[in-house]
Write a sequence for this structure.
């Protein structure tokens, strides 16, 4: 098969008991099938179906199904195989050995050639081995020693230890340096495509050697360095860069879209729900009622119907038309959110942000590269100057955005600045400015917080902007207003702005504790969580 051709099978020469045959490797959706290849070897040499084959590379490292496709696409790779029970490297049994001659993916289907074998791979279909490799984590002491030796043996490695000993953390630049050193060591020792267990070993070694880098909310604590289930993490990303640079091949990364606020959820509240004509009657009553208590009661009774409206793409944009009381009755967003998640979850942001997260975010942001914008936010958040540029609570929230800045999606996508991302989160207008003019100028946007006042450091009113309409916040403080802004995403089933995805995901999982361990999180989110939870203030 020539490079660039799609959907073509590959032929691989296999020698077994002195007999050489070509074995076809089926290709489905641009992926070479490991299982079908093994079955093909068994058929070609008339081996029983239950025969287990084991593959190893030239270093004696077992090769998993998950990297089989990538290995086949690598030029110059050759193979060697053993049947189960005869794979001890110290004992060679020619009767049970199948030699895979050197081949290249550039060979056309149907070509024939013979060549000596310099590198070997090993086929193994034992499911127990694969399960043990992925599910059974390596020994933490061995992992720790592996990382320690690698860092001490490379230039710049000692500086990483010194910084951690001094600060109990690693700056972003030092973390990148550490990852580069470890990936270089990994590739040098185990080749361009290290086995999964090797990648896990290095990730485990990092969090064992530097315990403050461990993420307490992840299953193993090291997933932000390597997550074998999703193939993500700092080590995985660096490996992909090294592999791409070494082969000149550019692969399109898989896009992972998490649902977040758009995920349908069961109602937590036990309030009786109305349906049919009763629901329509309640919607009509509260539309014209001046009794705010009655409005809230009817809104609770129609919650389930409202969730159907916002979850349906055909009707979601009409929710404020059907339920206009959101626009003049503060507190309804919080009420809907509480019916979804309960009182305990609903109160977590107001309970945890001011005393726990805010001081740690301020402390961590002092280590960011110097910039006028960050300096102004730090002064405002700490209220250390009479000329603060922002409300203290809003400033602290914007500082978190600097720890979790927007990232570009794909190689051609442009990355927006943190300042531009902040403009998608919070906007300010002076008292007296026309609200209609502002909404027309802003246009359709994801939910954002609108601050109205004489100055940014003296805000009188907060609103949530949604579908070019303004919803008044129930409490006029920055922290309470942001609490409602976040909850609005769930009340109206609106996805996060792409530039704010890391920011909102952190708020969702780390502060509110929603979908912990289930929500798709970037390594950066996990890293900042680990850093803040281990920070002493």
């Amino acid at each position: 098969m020539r490079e660039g051709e799609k959907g073509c099978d590959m032929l691989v020469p296999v020698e077994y008991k002195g007999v050489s045959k070509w074995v076809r490797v089926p290709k489905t959706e641009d992926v070479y099938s490991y299982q079908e290849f093994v079955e093909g070897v068994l058929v070609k040499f008339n081996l029983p179906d239950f025969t287990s084959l084991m593959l190893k590379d030239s270093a004696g490292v077992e090769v998993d199904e998950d990297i089989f496709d990538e290995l086949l696409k690598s030029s110059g790779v050759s193979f060697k195989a053993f049947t189960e029970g005869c794979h001890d490297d110290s004992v060679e049994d020619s009767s049970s050995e199948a030699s895979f001659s050197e081949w290249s993916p550039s060979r056309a289907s149907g070509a024939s050639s013979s060549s000596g074998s310099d590198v070997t791979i090993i086929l193994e279909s034992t499911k127990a081995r694969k399960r043990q490799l992925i599910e059974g984590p390596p020994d933490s002491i061995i992992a720790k020693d592996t990382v320690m030796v690698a860092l001490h043996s490379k230039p710049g490695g000692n500086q990483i230890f010194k910084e951690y000993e001094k600060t109990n953390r690693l700056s972003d630049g030092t973390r990148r340096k550490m990852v580069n050193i470890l990936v270089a060591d990994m590739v040098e020792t185990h080749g361009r495509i290290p086995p999964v267990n090797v990648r896990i070993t290095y990730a485990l070694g990092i969090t064992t050697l530097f315990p403050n880098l461990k993420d307490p909310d992840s299953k193993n604590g090291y997933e932000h360095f390597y997550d074998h289930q999703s193939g993500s993490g700092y080590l995985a990303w660096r490996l992909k860069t090294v592999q791409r640079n070494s082969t000149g091949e550019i692969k399109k990364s898989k896009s992972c879209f998490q649902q977040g606020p758009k995920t349908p959820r069961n109602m937590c509240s036990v309030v009786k729900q109305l349906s049919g004509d009763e629901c329509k009657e309640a919607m009509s009553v509260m539309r014209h009622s001046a009794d705010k208590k009655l409005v809230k009661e009817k809104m609770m009774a129609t919650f389930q119907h409202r969730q159907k409206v916002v979850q349906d793409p055909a009707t979601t944009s009409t929710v404020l038309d059907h339920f206009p009381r959101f626009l003049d009755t503060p507190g309804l967003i919080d009420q809907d959110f509480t019916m979804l998640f309960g009182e305990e979850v609903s109160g977590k942001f107001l309970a945890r942000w001011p005393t726990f997260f805010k001081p740690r975010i301020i402390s961590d942001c002092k280590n960011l590269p110097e910039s006028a914008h960050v300096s102004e936010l730090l002064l405002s958040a700490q209220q250390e100057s009479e000329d603060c540029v922002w409300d203290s609570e809003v400033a602290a929230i914007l500082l978190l955005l600097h720890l979790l800045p927007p990232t570009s999606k794909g190689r051609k996508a442009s990355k927006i600045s943190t300042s531009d991302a902040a403009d998608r989160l919070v906007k300010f207008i002076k008292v007296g400015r026309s609200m209609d003019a502002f909404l027309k100028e802003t246009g359709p946007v994801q939910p954002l917080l609108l601050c109205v006042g004489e100055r940014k450091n003296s805000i009188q009113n907060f609103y949530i902007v949604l579908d070019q309409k303004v919803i008044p916040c129930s409490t006029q403080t920055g922290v309470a207003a942001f609490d409602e802004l976040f909850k609005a995403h769930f009340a109206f089933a609106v996805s996060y702005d792409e530039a704010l995805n890391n920011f909102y995901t952190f708020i969702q999982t780390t502060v509110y504790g929603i979908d912990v361990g289930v929500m798709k999180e970037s390594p950066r989110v996990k890293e900042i969580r680990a850093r803040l939870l281990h920070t002493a203030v």
Q: What stands out?
A: The longest strand covers residues 458-466. The mean pLDDT is 80. DSSP finds 22 helices and eleven strands in the chain. The longest helix spans residues 172-190.
